[in-house]
Design a protein that fits this description.
The protein is of the alpha/beta class and about 325 residues long. It folds into two domains: about 230 residues, Rossmann fold, CATH 3.40.50.300; about 80 residues, no CATH class. The protein is about 30% helix and about 25% strand. It contains eleven helices and twelve strands. The strands form two sheets. It has an eight-stranded mixed sheet, sandwiched between helices. Strands 2-1-4-5 form a four-stranded antiparallel sheet, with helices on one face. β9 and β10 form a beta hairpin. It is globular. The two termini are about 35 Å apart. The relative contact order is 0.14. The mean pLDDT is about 90.
Length: about 325
């Protein structure tokens, strides 16, 4: 069975003051129906840019897909017209953005914003869209949905606004839901509720989820497979439990070591938490023919600074792009 989404050799470029930079460099992955795939990495590694590329929402005039394919249900989205992308966005592929307070329109009620999606994509009447908007608020567990449907975003808590964003994203029963840092700035109790909600919705609707995060705990909680991104490239890919127990890339090992414990069966007693030294390189350094993590890596050798590493496979469910992967 073919994958629901297949991204092959994707290259996304941004025009900056220093020239053109490949913010996504030769990225390939697949997503099956009903699967949860997580993208992990520090800020600036290309996670959100990958999502925007899939959605066709790259920054106007400065961002473009320079190569590769994004195959969705057998259709190459890189060749789709803007009209066709508008039909797919929100209908077949939806996205929960990082900041619900800035993503929701402050001058429209939450009911109006949910109903707008239903009328635009499903052709529902105003009354039918309004009734379904209330049902969606109930589905995302907002108390008294018919009473809260007339509320404006500022009248809701952060967790409730995030639930409204989920309701909007799921209004048309998409095949793929992209959740970009869905629990940012929420307390741990609300985070757990959001994860429970996403799990239940996935079970009930069969929607595949791409979750973007820097939180390894969230990955262990939600995802089946993960892709570790660094400087626009894949560093490591595989099953979540395999990578968390046996990371093969020094960067992945550093991310895992920063967490005191991840899941009950992966808990380690750590007196001191390690850190990944240094910072992500600037955009002007992206695309160089070398390992872009070499400057921060304690295992780096001469070939790491002279040649881009190839992928090394470990069994059938893990691979790392690192010259020293066998030694990690």
């Amino acid at each position: 069975m073919s994958a629901l989404l297949s991204v092959q050799n994707l290259r996304i470029e941004l025009t900056t003051r220093d020239g053109v930079a490949p913010v996504i460099d030769d990225l390939s992955f697949t997503l099956d129906a009903g699967e949860v795939l997580s993208f992990v990495g520090e800020s600036g590694c290309g996670k959100s840019m990958t999502a925007l590329g899939i959605m066709g929402l790259l920054p106007d005039r400065i961002g473009r897909i320079a190569g590769g394919q994004i195959m969705f249900d057998g259709e190459d989205l890189t060749k789709a017209s803007e009209k066709r992308l508008r039909e797919i966005r929100g209908n077949d592929i939806s996205m929960i953005f990082q900041e619900p307070m800035t993503s929701l329109n402050p001058v429209y009620t939450v009911g109006e914003q949910i109903a707008e999606v239903l009328r635009a994509h499903q052709g529902l009447s105003k009354r039918a869209a309004w009734a379904q908007a209330a049902e969606l608020l109930d589905a995302v567990r907002i108390p008294n949905p018919r009473g809260r449907i007339d509320d404006y975003p500022f009248q809701m808590s952060g967790g409730q606004r995030q639930r409204v964003m989920i309701a909007i994203a799921l209004a048309c029963k998409p095949k793929i839901l992209i959740a970009d840092e869905p629990t940012t700035a929420l307390d741990v109790t609300v985070q757990a509720q959001i994860f429970d909600l996403l799990r239940d919705l996935r079970r009930d609707t069969g929607t595949a989820i791409i979750m973007i995060t820097h939180d390894m705990g969230a990955v262990a909680e939600m995802a089946e497979r993960m892709i570790v991104m660094y400087a626009g490239r894949r560093a490591e890919e595989g099953r979540v439990d395999t990578i968390l127990e046996h990371p093969r890339h020094p960067y992945t090992r550093g991310l895992v070591s920063c967490v005191p414990h991840i899941t009950d069966h992966l808990t380690e007693a750590r007196d001191v938490l390690t850190e990944v030294p240094g910072i992500v390189p600037s955009l002007r350094d992206f695309g160089q023919d070398q390992c872009l993590f070499a400057a921060r890596c304690t295992m780096a050798e001469d070939r790491c600074r002279a040649q881009r590493p190839s992928a090394v496979a470990f069994g059938t469910d893990q691979r790392a792009d690192c010259w020293r992967a066998e030694d990690v």
